[in-house]
Design a protein that fits this description.
four-stranded parallel beta sheet, 4 strands, UDP-N-acetylmuramoyl-L-alanine:D-glutamate ligase
């Protein structure tokens, strides 16, 4: 099942599907699985504030180095369009929400940045997981279930 970006993990439909063993993906997971080989590395940025600005800055820096790069995810081009583009990208600057990470179990970014402070219990758990080395979502781990 591919969940709409507007559905939270606690949505009854998703909870029921998960309970009966139906895998649930989001657009991020679908895009990750649609990548052609060799795939462009993903540089992922998540957090509470500054994601769009940081992703746009990263895109500009990569393009300034002569790479075919694009801002994707919650900004710019959709991930699906980027990974299925006729002319492949060298690298993707990917803006992701924690909700998008939740539904992307196999996504493994080349590098990830968490722009945040522990302002909410969920983000505090995510930071605790990072410190404990138990997965952040940026590495495909499921911090919300682990911590």
């Amino acid at each position: 099942m591919v969940a709409s970006p507007g559905l939270r993990p606690s949505d009854p439909l998703l909870v029921e599907a998960s309970a009966v063993g139906i895998p649930i993906w989001g657009e991020v997971e679908l895009a990750w699985r649609l990548r052609a080989e060799p795939a462009a590395p993903w540089l992922a940025i998540t957090g509470t504030n500054g994601k769009t600005t940081t992703v746009r800055m990263l895109e500009s820096m990569l393009q300034g180095r002569g790479l075919r790069a694009v801002a994707v995810g919650n900004v710019g081009v959709s991930l699906i369009d980027a990974v299925t583009a006729d002319e492949p990208y060298d690298v993707l600057a990917v803006e992701l929400s924690s909700q998008q990470l939740h539904f992307a179990p196999s996504m493994r970014a080349e590098a990830g940045v968490l722009l945040t402070s522990p302002q909410t219990p969920r983000l505090a758990r995510r930071l605790r997981c990072l410190r404990q080395g138990e997965g952040s979502g940026l590495d495909g781990g499921d911090c919300d279930r682990q911590c």
